[in-house]
């Protein structure tokens, strides 16, 4: 029988062990970033994790994701569930073999929500990311959204901040654009116009890199959802995917320890607020 994980030398976590064990984290997307998110959460006394993905593991995933050769061909959800249980058998792991999209968001997520739920989004589709974030606004659920790892080579450039402040990440740029276009999020200045007012933060945690890519952004694969190719034109390395995942997991733990389960703070432009 495995031994329980202890945090005697980390007073902040040790004093919040009950909060951690009562929390529920939903991880959507289990690829280069999401697999490392789950690994970190499983080692941090999180009580309940829901894994959502329909993808299986292929050989070209091994350079940047957490899998081993004998995992090839298996569903990512199944492998990560077993891994979590081997790390800490007290964790409750729920798996959902599906891709999140506009049509199934409510049916899949709403039954899972508790007062201590956090969503970590590692989806690589800007349109699906926007739909998911809009959903969290409606349901007042805290969300941490992760940017693209494609083309990154410098893990020291990975930061976290409000989604309104992201500049160099193209995936999050298009996500924010879709939120304003399709979900009535507050608009920024028009292209070419100077921003003369202070943008109000949306309270949407984003993890992204400030590294400016040498490759053209058109080389990045930013899909509209569903299955994608195992290999893209824009390479990815494990020491960047893993850092994005670890930072996202750390932000989730911060929310849990602080007890601040606040959803996004967005007044849509069609709301009379």
Relevant terms:
single chain, 273 residues, alpha/beta, 31% helix, ThiF/MoeB/HesA, ThiF_NAD_FAD-bd, THIF-type NAD/FAD binding fold domain-containing protein, Ubiquitin-activating_enz
Describe the structure in your own words.
The protein has 273 residues and is an alpha/beta fold. The protein has one domain (11-187, 201-258): NAD(P)-binding Rossmann-like Domain (Rossmann fold, 3-Layer(aba) Sandwich). It has eight helices and seven strands, in the order ααβαβαβαβαββαβα. α6 crosses α7. Mean pLDDT is 86; it is low at 217-229.
How would the blueprint of this fold be written?
Blueprint: H1 11-14, H2 17-22, E1 24-28, H3 34-42, E2 48-52, H4 76-87, E3 92-96, H5 105-109, E4 117-121, H6 126-139, E5 143-146, E6 158-162, H7 170-182, E7 205-209, H8 238-258
Parallel strand pairs: 1-2, 1-4, 2-3, 4-5, 5-7
Antiparallel strand pairs: 6-7
Helix pairs in contact: 3-4, 3-8, 6-7
Architecture (CATH level 2) name = 3-Layer(aba) Sandwich
Distance, first to last CA: 54 Å
What is the typical, i.e. mean, pLDDT?
Answer: 86
Note the main sheet.
7 strands, mixed
* Overall body shape: globular
Order of helices and strands: HHEHEHEHEHEEHEH
Strand order of the largest sheet: 3-2-1-4-5-7-6
Q: What is the tally of helical segments?
A: 8
Look at the helices and sheets and give the structural class.
alpha/beta
Helix content percent band: 25-40%
Uncertain residue ranges? 217-229
Percentage of β-strand residues: 5-15%
The overall number of domains is 1
At the fold tier of CATH, the topology name is: Rossmann fold
